[in-house]
Amino acid sequence: xxxxxxxxxxxxxxxxxxxxxxxxxxxxxxxxxxxxxxxxxxxxxxxxxxxxxxxxxxxxxxxxxxxxxxxxxxxxxxxxxxxxxxxxxxxxxxxxxxxxxxxxxxxxxxxxxxxxxxxxxxxxxxxxxxxxxxxxxxxxxxxxxxxxxxxxxxxxxxxxxxxxxxxxxxxxxxxxxxxxxxxxxxxxxxxxxxxxxxxxxxxxxxxxxxxxxxxxxxxxxxxxxxxxxxxxxxxxxxxxxxxxxxxxxxxxx
Length: 253
Description:
10% of the residues lie in helices and 67% in strands.
């Protein structure tokens, strides 16, 4: 069963961060905490292998045009705080992806995979370079909560087909960096990457996008994001790359 308690704990962490880091009284501008909240929509395709027990599906794939056709949409929301050079980043990603065409299962027939994935990220950030090209380093943890529903078509070895479902939760540590390059009065380019491991064998993600300042307190953000997770433990396989366009509105306060 997909675990809602993880989401509740993540929301509690956001509230605790706001209460802990919010200034208690008047502060100098350079010492004040600054926050940015950003809801995103992420149209993510997927490609990889999944499996539960002896039932696996290789070559699971859903392209971006398939996403648009079938309205498979992901959601991402983030909250970032900074005081001076130090800060924190909290991020939530939820994706429910549906395979349009069944993938082959060796000797068994075809398998239709419906993975549901949530990732809860918390990281410390530190700005190591200011000036015209700010550079931030990050170190943190990411909790992955994945549910796999696999439906097997009828075959000689499995008359009547079969359906199995299982979920796993694991934690990875990661390090990363983010670079922002102003290119015009209101425009800037952003590149982000991180890499880690722990509960999974390996995980990484990259983002490349553009930011447009709508006002002193709001910024439109859009670009491309790719996430790869390779997890194989206790007869549960989730080796998946998810990528697609994102867009959102950042509000500074």
